[in-house]
């Protein structure tokens, strides 16, 4: 907290808006959600209320947390459900750092992540899945940085976060806000887990010397190596895509490029949602760049990420390993089984829509039309 205050942007934050806790959750979701985290909840919510009251038109809430530890996952999801209760009609948007496939910080990551996803499925409108391994890969492969720091990783994430909210903050030719994004990106309420991407990829401190073109931006944006979640979009299909362009550029050129991408790669887009790419344009580029693009994809391949967590969860839960840490904080085993089945349901829903064709879905539409006629 003190390092944030004394850091480069310390002046941005109101001194009253810092909440301190004297203890940690010790990588235990139950501690964050039921005991240690719950004690801080009142003071956090008071602060949120105070800020919300001074807003003219509150768009929604944006939360950054990780799902592998105890505080971000346990207390983070508790905060989400409390804010949801108090502001049910506002958008809830999270940037969630998922456990990485090969790099693990904590043994109980699968438990914490599964219990968190169980909450996120029900309580958020948009969840951007980010994982450290994918960010490291971007640094090694694309930016050629052999030893990236957390500061470098955060630079990538912050560029994406800034891109998502850019239309709220700056004038543009074609605006998009968090609600428009949700309406265009979420075909079914549970399937709101997105893969973010950003282009042009630049390392911290190095300005882009080469002027980029719109075709190059578009190509890099859809490149699987650009995704900030460790799953391959080519293994699934896009239900919806949003592209937010920043900088002075021709609308016509942007539309043509987006149309080309869909035409050339039509097999990667589901055919039963026509025109499933939303484009937004903002005139003000990020500092140091002439133009940039933020990519948000709702792709069925995100199930790889959940499958991986689910398999690790099952392997440990079958043996009841480490369970006493959670039951000791007042949790019941039933919560674990519910969370596991919810996660597995989510995976099978993604799979179902990946394989679905227009003909199959036509049957549902006919039934709906009959009901509407009645």
From TrEMBL:
<dbReference type="Pfam" id="PF00091">
    <property type="entry name" value="Tubulin"/>
</dbReference>
<dbReference type="InterPro" id="IPR037103">
    <property type="entry name" value="Tubulin/FtsZ-like_C"/>
</dbReference>
<dbReference type="InterPro" id="IPR000217">
    <property type="entry name" value="Tubulin"/>
</dbReference>
<dbReference type="GO" id="GO:0005874">
    <property type="term" value="C:microtubule"/>
</dbReference>
<comment type="similarity">
    <text>Belongs to the tubulin family.</text>
</comment>
<dbReference type="InterPro" id="IPR023123">
    <property type="entry name" value="Tubulin_C"/>
</dbReference>
<dbReference type="InterPro" id="IPR003008">
    <property type="entry name" value="Tubulin_FtsZ_GTPase"/>
</dbReference>
<dbReference type="GO" id="GO:0007017">
    <property type="term" value="P:microtubule-based process"/>
</dbReference>
<feature type="domain" description="Tubulin/FtsZ 2-layer sandwich">
    <location>
        <begin position="174"/>
        <end position="311"/>
    </location>
</feature>
<comment type="subunit">
    <text>Dimer of alpha and beta chains. A typical microtubule is a hollow water-filled tube with an outer diameter of 25 nm and an inner diameter of 15 nM. Alpha-beta heterodimers associate head-to-tail to form protofilaments running lengthwise along the microtubule wall with the beta-tubulin subunit facing the microtubule plus end conferring a structural polarity. Microtubules usually have 13 protofilaments but different protofilament numbers can be found in some organisms and specialized cells.</text>
</comment>
<dbReference type="GO" id="GO:0005525">
    <property type="term" value="F:GTP binding"/>
</dbReference>
<dbReference type="InterPro" id="IPR018316">
    <property type="entry name" value="Tubulin/FtsZ_2-layer-sand-dom"/>
</dbReference>
<dbReference type="Pfam" id="PF03953">
    <property type="entry name" value="Tubulin_C"/>
</dbReference>
<dbReference type="InterPro" id="IPR002453">
    <property type="entry name" value="Beta_tubulin"/>
</dbReference>
<dbReference type="GO" id="GO:0003924">
    <property type="term" value="F:GTPase activity"/>
</dbReference>
<dbReference type="GO" id="GO:0005200">
    <property type="term" value="F:structural constituent of cytoskeleton"/>
</dbReference>
<comment type="function">
    <text>Tubulin is the major constituent of microtubules, a cylinder consisting of laterally associated linear protofilaments composed of alpha- and beta-tubulin heterodimers. Microtubules grow by the addition of GTP-tubulin dimers to the microtubule end, where a stabilizing cap forms. Below the cap, tubulin dimers are in GDP-bound state, owing to GTPase activity of alpha-tubulin.</text>
</comment>
<keyword id="KW-0206">Cytoskeleton</keyword>
<dbReference type="InterPro" id="IPR008280">
    <property type="entry name" value="Tub_FtsZ_C"/>
</dbReference>
<keyword id="KW-0493">Microtubule</keyword>
<keyword id="KW-0547">Nucleotide-binding</keyword>
<dbReference type="InterPro" id="IPR017975">
    <property type="entry name" value="Tubulin_CS"/>
</dbReference>
<dbReference type="InterPro" id="IPR036525">
    <property type="entry name" value="Tubulin/FtsZ_GTPase_sf"/>
</dbReference>
<keyword id="KW-0342">GTP-binding</keyword>
<keyword id="KW-0963">Cytoplasm</keyword>
<feature type="domain" description="Tubulin/FtsZ GTPase">
    <location>
        <begin position="3"/>
        <end position="172"/>
    </location>
</feature>
<keyword id="KW-1017">Isopeptide bond</keyword>
<protein>
    <recommendedName>
        <fullName>Tubulin beta chain</fullName>
    </recommendedName>
</protein>
